[in-house]
Design a protein that fits this description.
This protein is an alpha+beta fold. Helices cover 42% and strands 16% of the residues. The relative contact order is 0.12.
């Protein structure tokens, strides 16, 4: 994994001010250097500048970037963030076509593929990636993003110059380009946050390359091309064939994602998703005589304060211990306390450039900082719930029938503490509903499909486009802010494509939540884990944490210079702090309830302060 950034302008010769624009490239790179501190480099031509911060995972010696190649009189340069998991197969194909390689890097495979087959080569690539290729002969810049949006890529126009970067902060490192928060930005934060509308960067004029697309930039402007999208079609396989194919795809994805020239580890929660990834990884590495390291995360004294509820029915540790014994991993139990959560609360805003998932995110940032002391690559169980229907809103009647995002059916918690005049000024409910309806309208459905199955597709599509993306952003920013590469084997487009068309009675046979995944995991997990009821990423239940947040928020509101005072009603906050929090009604997803709302508002205040509101 790495960080990339750059600029492009067909009517400007950057080489006329070579020293200045080289310095600009270095400044943009430095702003995202946390994504890769092993190496760095820049490329500058007449119309394009590319910058790269490298985290060395594949080809440690000769995989430096930007990578530049000249063939038949044409020079192309590439910068790449991500991994190509079918690198070896693609490399062999290109060698048969006469291409010779100078490195063992997957980046050179992408560059050679473009120079041999053009932009259509992207359709062959299996991986997580965001990369830029500049073609000097065509005077064109191409920006590519992976199918599911695992790796980020933002862009904008500033003063007629096109800018792009792995993170928003990279755009604002360009001289004179200051972030602007407008009314739409505030609607994103208060109506949708910690999610955001895909394709936008929240700040005024900022956008992101959509998953499954690439941009082509030239003197004629910017053209967007879709190279992949989900398609609905009848499912032809019977249940046994479906289980067999699902099992193969998952196992193959995990095996491919073990590709690394440095040791890998797994995140192990004791749930079916991370446990399956860990089990497959352990078996594969054991064949080579390599023990697998695994890590689990929890909060100090959670065994004392834990409160079982419909979202989190059980603690993780007993199931983690079963998996350690089953797989024989070299395991590390990690814990964080209230101080760790608070210390990283604002650091996660720095990492995301936006308010995010409060302690759900700050804890993950803390854990990633601990893991990276020993490992640079980690495989996780993210994305299985969105793909296989694991969340409660796939199953509850009120969620199924709601004309809204199923994880935020009730907007009242979002409006609870806002001033009445802000509620009148910001159309929060309309903004959220319009975003919801836009996604529903683009859901790929089959003509004549049963209304119930059609609705299931809509809910699945909402999850893939919104909830999964939010969690992928969380994983990318928290891990990469520490220089840790987090991989997500379930986010393999082959798995998503196949399972998308599997009917619900196969995904959830006889009402068994994620039954297809459980059957596909048979033989890799002990029964206690295989049939464990879903329990999401852990959060703290320490009542002192909520009290600490309340004190911090009140101190912020007592400071007249705090920008949050523009939006928050102090009397409403006082009443809220005097009322016990309801952990059963999260304001976003399953984990963000009363304490997380307080923490989110603290993040909003920090964000408004940092970005000049």
């Amino acid at each position: 994994m790495c960080g990339i950034a750059g600029f492009f302008h067909t009517k400007r010769n950057f080489l006329e001010e070579k020293d200045y624009f080289s310095s600009v490239l270095n400044t943009m790179r430095e702003s995202i250097s946390h994504r890769g501190n092993d190496e760095n480099g820049i490329f500058l031509s007449s119309h394009c500048g590319l910058a790269h911060a490298r985290l060395s995972i594949i080809d440690l010696q000769t995989g430096s970037q930007p990578m530049v190649r000249t063939e038949n009189g044409n020079t192309c340069a590439i910068i790449h963030n991500g991994e190509v998991y079918n690198m070896q197969e693609l490399r062999e194909e290109l060698e048969k076509k006469g291409h010779s390689f100078q490195t063992t890097s997957d980046t050179e495979v992408l560059l050679a593929g473009y120079m041999t087959e053009g932009v259509s080569f992207i359709e062959k690539v299996n991986g997580i990636f965001a990369y830029a290729i500049y073609d000097e002969q065509l005077e064109r810049l191409f920006l590519f993003r992976d199918r599911l949006g695992v790796k980020p890529l933002f862009f904008m126009q500033y003063d007629d110059t096109f800018l792009f970067a792995s993170e928003l902060k990279g755009l604002f490192a360009y001289p004179g380009n200051a972030p602007i928060i407008d009314k739409k930005s505030l609607c994103e934060i208060f109506a949708l946050g910690p999610a955001k509308t895909y394709g936008t960067g929240v700040f005024q004029n900022t956008k992101e390359v959509l998953p499954g697309t690439f941009l082509s930039l030239s003197a004629n402007g910017i053209a967007e091309h879709t190279y992949w999208k989900l398609q609905s079609a009848p499912h032809e396989d019977d249940f046994e064939e479906t289980i067999e194919k699902t099992a193969f795809l998952i196992q193959d994805s995990v095996k491919k994602q073990l590709l690394s020239d440095v040791p890998v580890c797994t995140f192990l929660s004791g749930g079916i998703d991370s446990s399956l990834v860990t089990s497959i990884s352990a078996r594969e590495l054991n064949k080579k005589g390599i023990p697998l390291s695994s890590y689990s995360f929890d909060f100090k004294d959670n065994s004392i304060h834990f409160k079982s509820n419909s979202f989190q029915p059980s603690e993780d540790r007993p199931f983690v211990e079963k998996m350690i014994a089953y797989c024989g991993t070299d395991h590390t139990f990690l814990e964080c306390d209230n101080d760790d959560l608070i210390q990283n609360l604002y650091r996660t805003v720095d990492a995301r450039d936006l308010p995010c998932m409060a302690d759900v995110e700050s804890s993950l940032l803390y854990f990633c900082k601990e893991v990276v002391q020993n490992h640079k690559v980690a495989l996780t169980g993210e994305c299985a719930d969105e793909i296989f229907g694991g969340y409660p809103w796939f199953h509850k009647k009120e969620c199924f029938e709601a004309d809204s995002f199923p994880w935020t059916m009730d907007m009242s918690p979002r409006k609870l503490l806002l001033k009445d005049e802000i509620l009148a000024e910001l159309p929060l409910e309309d903004y959220a509903h319009n975003a919801y309806e836009a996604t529903i309208a683009e859901t790929p459905v089959s003509i004549g499909e049963d209304p119930v199955e059609k609705r299931r597709r809509e809910i699945a599509y909402l999850n893939l486009k919104w909830f999964m993306t939010t969690l992928l952003d969380r994983m990318d920013r928290t891990s990469m802010s520490c220089g840790l590469e987090a991989r997500v084997p379930f986010a393999d487009h082959r798995i998503v494509e196949y399972v998308w068309n599997v009917p619900w009675e196969m995904k959830c046979p006889n009402g068994l939540v994620k039954g297809l995944l459980r059957y596909a995991s048979t033989g890799f997990l002990p029964d206690a884990v295989l049939y464990r009821k879903k329990s999401p990423y852990p959060k703290t239940y320490n009542p002192e944490y909520e009290k600490l947040l309340g004190t911090m928020l009140w101190e912020v509101l007592e400071d007249a210079s705090s920008p949050l005072n523009t939006f928050i009603d102090k009397q409403k906050v006082r009443s809220f702090l005097e009322t016990p929090s309801d952990y059963g009604k999260p304001f976003y997803g399953q984990l963000m309830a009363g304490p997380q709302l307080l923490a989110y508002l603290l993040q909003v205040n920090y964000w408004l302060t940092k970005y000049g509101c």
